[in-house]
Amino acid sequence: MATSTSPAPSTAKGSLQGTLGPIPIVLMVVAAAAPLTVVGGGTPVGMMLGNGAGFPLNYVISAVILLLFSVGMSAMSRSISRPGAFFTYIGSGLSRPLGVGSAFVALATYTLVQIGVYGFLGEQLRIATVAIGFPSVPWWAWALAIIAGTAWLGYRHIDLSTKVLGVLLAAEVLIVVALNIAVFISGGAEGISFAPFSISEGLSGSPGVGITFAVAGFLGFEATAIFRDEARDPEKTIPRATYIAIISIGIFYAISSWALVLAWGPSQILAAATADPSGLMVSTTTRYLGAAAGGSVQVLMLSSAFACVLAFHNVLARYMHAMASTEVLPSSMSKVHDTFGSPAASSVVQSASAAILVAACALFGMDPILQVFTWGSGIAVLGVLLLMTLTSVAVLVYFQRTKSDTRIWHTKLAPALGAVGLTFLTVVVAVNFPTLIGGDAPLAIGLASIILVALAIGIGVAFSLKRRRPHIYANVIEAISV
Prior knowledge:
Elements: H1 22-33, H2 35-49, H3 56-79, H4 86-93, H5 96-131, H6 139-155, H7 158-186, H8 199-202, H9 207-216, H10 234-264, H11 269-275, H12 280-289, H13 291-325, H14 344-363, H15 368-402, H16 408-431, H17 433-437, H18 441-468, H19 470-479
């Protein structure tokens, strides 16, 4: 693993430094995607509500579209030497107010998905501890304890987080790989079949719902650019990390979901997923690897969720730090720890806000799975797709205007194809949003409006700065332009 050998204290207030290679950054964003949770949780539900045995094809389609998007994003990361990812790129390519608005959308979406996973993890810990004879502790108490542990790790040098994530990620990936090998060696229930990747199977059932669940599994990969200041040779490291993340996640999901189909047989997987979507991964592992392995999957799904919230904590802290560095958020939040070289102030604020939101969910009596987790994840998917679509358009406009990179594939063709694909995905997710959040149309409209409200607040902040504090607005302009 290519990590920095020692903490790199900042040399100036608000400056992050580091020598992270592509692998630690990949670990961060792949952990945010929570691969075991996706394969064991999202995939069976996607099969049940979507296109059954044809579900693996959705991962291939999603990966291709996201790879096209990443070509333009990577070209942008070479031209703009600041972290901030979406809001930096959208601000530079389209407009500064829209860039600031996008920053607030990113904060809202990543915060909501993190709170959702805290709800999921808290409830799963409550269930697991009761099952082995411990008294029932409310889900929110478990969630607050996990927030405390995440806060401790996130406050310290990022090397510590990458090491923890590396161990947790390796464990969850290895159990899935072991299951895949066992299924392929045995030939599955009905023999090896490529039917799950056929067009006919892909179009069966409700393919729109299926691809909605598939694209949700990639959430988090796009945050590679936020680690720019802590990367070694960022012009090379960030693009490499982005490509590695998408390709590795896409291959892992496609093969693992294919193995899950073969384990029960293409003709029987829909019935199996419908009968027990939440327990399908455990029962499949028990069937092919034994009871001990099945029990370990239950434990590893919890560690997968913890790795997810730790990764999102680091991403959110750096988003806040980048915004505070331009004084869109209070400048005090840009303080970097003298010893750990971490965005300490933003990390503390992020932890405190997570604790407050979890407490609020508990006070309002929200169900940790059906509401906290489902709603938060659904809003996040829609919000990130919107941001990626805007980023693709920003890439096209930016390079057309600046001519700073004249490579046709990187600055024109791939971003244009990515924009078309992302627009398609955004429309599909919007249409199927009620299914994704497990509610009806009025509820879906109300939850989706959170994204528009965040965008409007950010745009309002930008115009307010321009009118009342022009020197700060000038700094924002300078910070997100070449």
